[in-house]
Amino acid sequence: MDERTALQMLAADLSGAGDDAAVVGDTVITTDMLHETTDFPDGTTRYTAGWRAVGASLSDVAAMGATATAAVAVYAAPEFDESDLLAFVNGARDVCEAVGAEYVGGDLDGHQEFTVATTAIGDTDDPVRRTGASPGDAVCVTGTLGRSAAALRFFESGDVERANDLFRFTPRVAAGEALRDHATAMMDSSDGLARSLHQLAEASDCGFDVAFDEVPVDPSVDDVARDEADRRECALHFGEDFELVFTLPEAELETIRPAIDVDVTQVGTVTESGSGVVADGEPLSDRGFTHGGE
């Protein structure tokens, strides 16, 4: 059973499950776990690990349209090296400061593999769910896609400085706040754009019609992609980019652009239930980042 199947099973018994974060009153809360073997390629600095791990949870807060307030982390490793530990905390603190939140501590544990568990909280009295997309809405993304796919190639080739730089994404908290009163459905793109669209389609009981030529592919992808098919794979299916994928009435798109601190690109349109997720006239495969997958 992979992560997605397990989550679907658990959601049947957990009424609050199904969005990027849980909602408790006016608080949103989310937690994540990352491992060295699956999430931190050789060459990932502890500073980048701290930034990326905490950033992943802050991205979930952003996807709810919430104001991020605080984060904590569990740092587990075979031994505690002073410079590694301080670098991790500095990365965690800096990503929090980048979005106006505070890193407030956590826990330490011994473990055979470097492993991080993070939790972030935020505030909103009107969270954006995955369930409100309607036919005719525009479907949009923030920023660019494919950064993490390119970073992995740079790690593999030994260009660890560039790889670490690409791995340190900015959680789109400010954009999420700006979209809170406009977006009809929203989530982050940690599982990849294609899978995110399928998840939104399932939650909102709708379809999507998108055009690959409209997808904002990060320039770094062009430095590593083997061909156009590989470029498409990096942008649509690799995931781990932590941008926002959202829908809103098309008439509101130009209104919200000036209020958002990052580029927003319309990649397609919401279609009727049963029409599926289509890219360039063909069914878009439901593939993306999955823990426990083959």
Can you put this structure into words, describing what you see?
It is a single chain. This protein is α+β, with helices and mostly antiparallel strands and 294 residues long. It has 2 domains: 20-123, PurM-like, N-terminal domain (60s Ribosomal Protein L30, Chain: A), CATH 3.30.1330; 138-283, Phosphoribosyl-aminoimidazole Synthetase, Chain A, domain 2 (Alpha-Beta Complex), CATH 3.90.650. 35% of the residues lie in helices and 24% in strands. The chain has 11 helices and 12 strands. The strands form 2 sheets. The protein has a 7-stranded mixed β-sheet with strand order 7-9-6-10-8-11-12, with helices on both faces. Helix 3 packs parallel to helix 7 and helix 5 packs antiparallel against helix 6 (160-167). The protein is globular and about 55 Å long. The mean pLDDT is 94.
Task: Summarize the SSE layout with pairings.
Blueprint: H1 3-11, E1 22-24, E2 27-35, H2 36-39, H3 46-63, E3 67-77, H4 82-98, E4 102-110, E5 115-123, E6 138-142, H5 147-157, H6 160-167, H7 173-179, E7 185-188, H8 193-204, E8 207-210, H9 219-222, H10 228-236, E9 244-248, H11 253-256, E10 264-271, E11 277-279, E12 282-283
Parallel strand pairs: 3-4, 8-11
Antiparallel strand pairs: 1-2, 2-5, 3-5, 6-9, 6-10, 7-9, 8-10, 11-12
Helix pairs in contact: 3-4, 3-7, 5-6
